[in-house]
Give the backbone structure.
Amino acid sequence: MPTFARDNQRVAPNGRYSMDKWDGYVASRQRLYDKLRETKAPNPIVLSGDVHLHYGAELKTDFENPQSPTVGVEFTNTSITSGADGAEVNATWERIRADNPHIKYHSARRGYVACTATPQTMRADFKILERVTVPDSPERTGGSLVVEAGRPGASVA
């Protein structure tokens, strides 16, 4: 389950955040992020899943303020086959995108995340399949993010 906030205000103003995810546990998330900052861990990276979507997001001390400090980066893996073929993006993505500038990558396709770590960088390549319902469908890289040692946040590769 991703720890980052996903603001759905433009599509569900009365249900802005999903209460069964970390958005329903704001104080707990804040304690986790505070601990990451307290330990001075350089560029923490969280790996998550269980939402059937790919995300690459920066973890912020205050998700409502894009200028707030970045605590770390999260790479969220989609499912490999659940939900049929998926789509290029979630149906609500274009409407919620502006309210979530900390999300640097998103896809609703099926696939996996391939990570490469070196002493200088952590790279996440979001691998996607156009169609999991067709045997031997090729995979492709939908997008890539890189976290550089000593530099908070992620950049698009």
